[in-house]
């Protein structure tokens, strides 16, 4: 009996305890993804390494130090020489294209940086102008407050001086009246004694 027929000939008690799904060779992308996720979730405590994407992949390799296809001065053009020439030309064009793209990227980055610096300088200038305006306005408001307080203090001082003067004048008048009254009462009292 062959091994394939032995596998099919196993009885129920000899069959493995875990039933496996039938093997499908042409999986849809959804089925393939499901299969991969199921495989990952079987070992949930095992860390999964997700590779990072390369930032930029250099197109051309480093130039070689040796040249394999050297032709002598007396050699004629063979049947494969055109293909060698074409491959060399393609590599050279790819190298020139890569250099052009790199210089273009550098130029664009430099122009972008210059624009950003100009914009930042303009914004800083505008911010500084607005800040100075705010500070001048605040300073004026503070000066107005202090001037108003001083004026109020002066008017209070003047008002209190006036009140003090009026009070003194009133007091002096009262004192004079009291003195006159005292003199009158003294005179009346002395006049009564005379009678």
TrEMBL record:
GO cellular component: nucleolus
Bias (Basic and acidic residues) ranges: 48-67, 90-130, 149-195
Xref: Pfam families: DUF1168
Gene Ontology molecular function terms on file: double-stranded RNA binding; protein kinase binding; protein kinase inhibitor activity
Biased composition, class Basic residues, residue ranges: 131-140
Spans annotated as Disordered: 1-30, 48-195
Matches recorded under PANTHER family: PRKR-INTERACTING PROTEIN 1
Name the UniProt record assigns to this protein: DUF1168-domain-containing protein
């Amino acid at each position: 009996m062959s091994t394939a027929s032995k596998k099919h000939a196993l009885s129920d008690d000899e069959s493995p305890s875990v039933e496996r799904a039938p093997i499908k060779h042409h999986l849809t992308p959804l089925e393939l993804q499901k299969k991969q996720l199921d495989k990952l979730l079987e070992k949930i405590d095992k860390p999964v390494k997700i590779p990072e994407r390369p930032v930029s992949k250099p197109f051309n390799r480093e130039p070689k130090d040796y040249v394999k296809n050297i032709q002598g001065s007396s050699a004629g053009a063979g049947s494969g020489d055109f293909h060698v020439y074409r491959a060399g030309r393609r590599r050279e064009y790819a190298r020139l294209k890569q250099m052009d793209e790199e210089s273009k990227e550098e130029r664009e980055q430099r122009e972008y940086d210059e624009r950003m610096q100009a914009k930042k300088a303009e914004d800083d200038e505008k911010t500084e102008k607005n800040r100075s305006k705010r500070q001048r306005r605040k300073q004026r408001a503070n000066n107005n407050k202090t001037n108003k307080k001083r004026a109020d203090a002066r008017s209070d001082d003047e008002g209190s001086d006036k009140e003090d003067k009026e009070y003194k004048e009133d007091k002096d008048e009262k004192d004079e009246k009291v003195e006159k009254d005292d003199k009158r009462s003294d005179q009346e009292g002395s006049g009564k004694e005379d009678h």
